[in-house]
From TrEMBL:
This is Inosine/uridine-preferring nucleoside hydrolase domain-containing protein. It comes from Rotaria magnacalcarata. SUPFAM superfamilies: Nucleoside hydrolase. The keyword Ion transport does not apply. The keyword Hydrolase applies.
Length: 450
């Protein structure tokens, strides 16, 4: 005798499998996993994907203190501005130093681009970034070596978090798109669960400003030995990943372009004045963390060489999520961009082009982006300092056992047995009925979809 619950669940599975090939709603068992996770959906779930440069850690610190955001997971990528060994461990070290150890799952991700321009980040710069917290000549902190990453790797964590979140998840990409492109390539059904994808960087110039590109193309030099002129590293370090993500069908893509970020100077005089004006006291570690970037990573450069890069992308995300008309981004623009992925594009390799439809009306593969085109650094800095000084750490409130990735693991284990039993029942008890009923449902779905 077949358990009626199993029968019901099977009917549900059949309907789900046949009627919703693209949306792929959860099966009965998967719904049990989702309920078991017990996600708080009063706040906007966000996955932060990061290459763990110093400005990425500023962005993370900011977002952990934003009450409307729930950071489900932080996923790291090892092909940007940190070496693979440090991409994950430096996030763990930083979380520990700000009082969020074990508060958010950190997944280790992909270390090689799907395709890069060939540009290699100088290892002296990578060394300075990787040892920013621990070097005696920089912040001289000791790292707790007992901190552990998530039981899931980045790709799994992205796929499973999107699948099991009760509501769409926003993704903030602060490094290359390698992790996101890999996750999407492996499981396209997660795309419908992405709310908005936010990207730090990219260039969005009119195609008309590339005089040699319209109508003439110059021949590429590959690999590139220098940074692409005016290019955005997060784009050209893995241009194929960016192209795949752009073309994947994600409904909303928002970017904080490098051109706008470049107006957001890290000006230590302005920083001091703002702290005084707002009467904000930062912990010594936090103050040195945000004010030592030039000193520790680029001592031969002037102060204005470095910018509030990734934390401005994070703040732009919050401004968009909360529909805040008083935010630091003063102007946005909707553009259709095309990322050049061609051997003929030379230094434009990996540049976003806007106005493509005007100049090349038959061009295909244009991607809609909303970008920030003008920003106010005073408003930005006040909001940033307010949040990182608050020490609320909203996304770190859960105990380890109630953390999203740990619940995910527990709940999947718990319901896996039930699923296995269901599969055995399906195969042994009523295969013929199952197949004919399957055909019947397929027929019904087929008719109703016409
Ligand atoms: C670094 O910190 C250690 C203590 O952890 C201290 O002994 C040492 O003097 C510090 N070095 C510098 C350069 O501040
Ligand atoms: C394009 O190339 C052709 C042949 O090399 C040249 O005659 C023409 O002036 C170029 N046009 C532009 C806009 O550079
Ligand atoms: C900012 O203030 C700190 C002390 O709080 C001081 O050491 C530093 O020199 C100041 N920097 C600038 C550029 O004024
Ligand atoms: C830095 O900030 C101060 C005070 O806000 C301002 O007077 C100065 O022009 C700024 N420097 C640069 C390079 O923007
Ligand atoms: C955002 O705010 C504006 C007014 O400030 C309003 O017209 C618009 O409907 C809001 N949009 C959303 C999505 O809440
Ligand atoms: C881009 O936006 C336009 C409306 O401005 C819409 O018609 C088009 O379908 C969108 N393209 C994609 C690929 O979503």
């Amino acid at each position: 005798m077949v358990d009626p619950r199993l029968l019901l669940a099977s009917v549900f599975l059949i309907i789900v499998n046949n009627c919703y090939v693209y949306g792929r709603p959860l099966t009965f068992i998967e719904q049990q996993v989702q309920l078991c996770i017990n996600q708080d959906i009063k706040r906007q779930p966000v996955i932060i994907d990061t290459d763990t440069d110093v400005d990425d850690l500023w962005a993370i610190h900011y977002l952990l203190n934003v009450p409307t955001v729930d950071v489900l997971a932080i996923t790291t990528v090892g092909d940007g501005y940190s070496k693979p060994f440090y991409s994950g461990s430096n996030v763990l070290t930083f979380l520990d130093l700000i009082g969020c150890s074990n508060g958010v799952g950190v997944g280790y991700g992909v270390n090689l681009p799907l395709m890069s321009s060939g540009y290699v980040i100088p290892s002296s710069l990578l060394d300075a970034i990787d040892s920013y917290m621990t070097s005696p000549t920089c912040l001289n902190q000791s790292a707790n070596i007992f901190l552990q990453p998530s039981p899931f790797g980045s790709i799994e964590l992205i796929k499973l978090s999107l699948k099991y979140s009760k509501i769409p998840v926003d993704i903030l990409v602060l490094g290359t798109m390698t992790n996101i492109a890999t996750a999407i390539s492996e499981d396209r059904s997660i795309i419908s669960k992405i709310g908005t994808l936010y990207f730090s960087g990219g260039q969005f110039k009119s195609i008309n400003s590339y005089t040699s590109l319209v109508p003439n193309l110059t021949v590429a030099t590959y690999p590139e030995s220098e940074e692409t002129s005016d290019g955005s590293p997060n784009a050209y370090l893995d241009i194929l990943a960016l192209q795949r993500v752009g073309m994947s069908g994600i409904k909303n893509i928002v970017a904080m372009p490098l051109i706008t970020q470049d107006t957001m100077l890290i000006n230590l005089t302005q920083l001091n004045e703002t702290l005084k004006r707002l009467n904000i006291q930062l912990k010594p570690f936090v103050l040195s963390f945000i004010s030592s970037f030039v000193k520790c990573t680029s001592p031969n450069q002037t102060e204005s060489y470095l910018k509030w890069w990734d934390n401005s992308a994070a703040q732009f995300m919050v401004q968009m999520q909360t529909n805040n008309s008083q935010g630091f981004c003063l102007r946005t623009q909707k553009v259709k961009s095309h990322y050049i992925l061609s051997a003929d594009s030379h230094q434009f390799y990996g540049q976003g082009m806007i106005d493509v439809e005007t100049f090349l009306p038959n061009a295909h593969g244009l991607v809609n982006y909303t970008i920030c085109t003008e920003a106010n650094s005073d408003i930005f800095l006040a909001e940033f300092l307010n949040k990182i000084s608050s020490e609320k750490l909203y996304s770190c409130e859960r105990q380890y056992n109630h953390r999203f990735d740990i619940k995910l693991q527990q709940c999947m284990l718990k319901f896996e047995n039930a699923e296995q039993q269901l599969n055995v029942a399906k195969q042994t008890s009523f295969p013929k009925a199952y197949v004919s009923f399957d055909l019947f449902i397929f027929f019904v779905c087929y008719l109703s979809s016409r």
